[in-house]
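Write out the 3D structure for:
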Amino acid sequence: MQLLDEPEAFLYPLLVKKIKNSLEEKIENNSRFQMFLTSHSRDFLKEINNVKYTFKNIRHHSEENTYQRRKNNVDINKYSVIEDIDSRTKYEVLKNYGLLDEIDDYEKIIICEGPTDKNYLQKILEREDYIPQIRYGKYSEGFNEASGLKLKYDYVGKGATAILPILIFLDNVSDISRKVFVILDGDQEGETVLSKGKDSEYRHLEIHKKYYLRVKK
């Protein structure tokens, strides 16, 4: 067993990846070896849905108390609690580190047509215990916004026409089984997209349900 406290601290980003790969290799080559580490590294945190890792959250607390025979009127006691990561905490961690749209093995995903739909859905779901990843638009949008990458190619689908390429990407980028909700406008383009392809063609995706956003004319 080995204990490591923030092994990535003060290191050049490329070295962080090398350390991460070296640690993973050491564990994979020794089934009896166990490692505990604390980290703020995005390279480690993006593995939050990887079955090779088990994540715990350290939550800090403080409380005010008064004690007899103390010269202070109030003492502040601070302590930390190690707890399991529930769905809400996982979402908050990924969002705070700018990783929510980069994780390619997120369990539940909503695919919509554009940023307006995404903002609307986020507002509706913001108080839920579990918030799915929301993807949309052109290939680079909706899953890698933090990198600043923006494709400019005219032949890359957008809106409803980007739904099928996103589904194909998700089905091939990871072996994790996940549920996908497809939300499209109830117009001709949306109906045409939904009529193409069969849900059974995807190996790792369960197209759980399809909604139509009614367009007011």
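The two ends are 65 Å apart (CA to CA).
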